[in-house]
Write a structure and sequence with these properties.
Chains A, B: Keywords: ATP-binding, Kinase, Nucleotide-binding, Transferase. The structure is a homodimer of 214-residue chains. By secondary structure, chain A is an alpha/beta fold. The first copy, chain A, has 2 domains: 133 residues, Thiamin pyrophosphokinase, catalytic domain (Rossmann fold, 3-Layer(aba) Sandwich), CATH 3.40.50; 73 residues, Thiamin pyrophosphokinase, catalytic domain (Rossmann fold, 3-Layer(aba) Sandwich). Chain A starts with a strand and ends with a strand.
């Protein structure tokens, strides 16, 4: 199981304890300010990338002494920093990609990070990408049937429709559904697992699933 | 100018300094844990509402000694807490409604709070509602022509499409647009005002505008 962890530049207050995400065959990508944050936490990323305009000249010089591969790109570009990090990660053909630092702070960054996964160019990334912060575990789904496990530290589960959704069936949750239809932008919030596992399926659309805590 | 401020229950770390939002003809609504937060900050809301399952029995008893009007409703309901607060606020026919505590923490709550304003039942609320946190000023727009002012403490402006958008024109921003079309879920992030004012217009769809800071 080859996993790539990406740290982007959102506020440190939203970053979870990383200890549980550092075991196994893991490599780290540090994106922009996220690269410095990794060094601050004693993690040396395989590669750092970004326009680095949030770092001082001294910080960038220090970064280059620590990280073997530093990829600088211009501040004005068509892709977001997270997209550039995700594209690089996808090329390594990992089994899983976790993104940290994508939430909190600027809401336009959060929305861009969520919307990114609805773009055709990242369709192949959808099954392998997770976003994780202190309060939330976030995963996007394309049509199909899924069995998911309750995360031990999370109470709530929610299904938000990122495209018009048809045929949505939920089993094993406090509020089950059978073959339901919801337009894009429906926030089916504050559901809960009945037991340890839940099943859901849908025929068309896209769903953003979150497991979260207050 | 009659303004109603609503405090809902998101993490305290995301709440801005409220001093600048307490002058003039202001009344406060405290929703669920938000009611306690207002009391903690020395603000007595006109009304408190919620299922209050996040408060202890003692906290709720104390709340009732301080707030003249406390409206309790069941935890299982079709509307979110924020929706109930917003519905009550709309009935008072205010010129402006500011919502605090709607961001940070649970992402399903944030998404539900944003999506709420795309619902037909809240269409009349769209022009008067703002959401405000430490990093972001958030406002939803329906088709039309608008002139907006740069907020003095915010650097970035972003346009996120909450419905398919046609005829989008942006003037007075670093990245202008002319009669552009974007599907739902496009995140036009990290734009900036050129001067103090910007203009935008669009023919169909819905747009979420954010002004934000790192």
């Amino acid at each position: 199981m080859k996993t790539i962890n990406i740290m982007v530049g959102g506020p440190a207050s939203e970053i979870p304890d990383l200890a549980q995400y550092t075991s196994g065959e893991i490599s780290w990508i540090g994106v922009d300010r996220g690269a410095k944050r990794l060094l601050d936490r004693g993690i040396i990323p395989t590669i750092a990338m970004g326009d680095f305009d949030s770092l001082s000249k001294e910080e960038l010089t220090y970064l280059k002494t620590k990280v073997a591969d530093v990829l600088e790109f211009p501040a004005e570009k068509d892709e977001t920093d997270t997209e550039i990090g995700l594209s690089w990660a996808m090329e390594q053909k990992p089994d899983k990609i976790r993104i940290f630092g994508a939430t909190g702070g600027r809401l336009d960054h959060l929305l861009a990070n969520l919307m990114m996964l609805t773009k055709p160019k990242f369709l192949s990334a959808v099954p392998v990408v997770e976003m994780i912060d202190r309060y939330n575990y976030i995963k996007m789904y394309t049509p199909g049937s899924y069995t998911i496990e309750k995360l031990p530290d999370k109470k709530y589960v929610a299904f938000t429709t990122m495209r018009d959704v048809t045929g949505l069936t939920l089993k094993g949750f406090a509020y089950p559904l059978e073959n339901a239809t919801y337009p894009v932008g429906s926030a089916l919030s504050s559901n809960e697992f009945v037991g340890q596992m839940g099943e859901f399926s849908f025929k068309s659309g896209m769903i953003l699933l979150t497991q979260s805590n207050d």
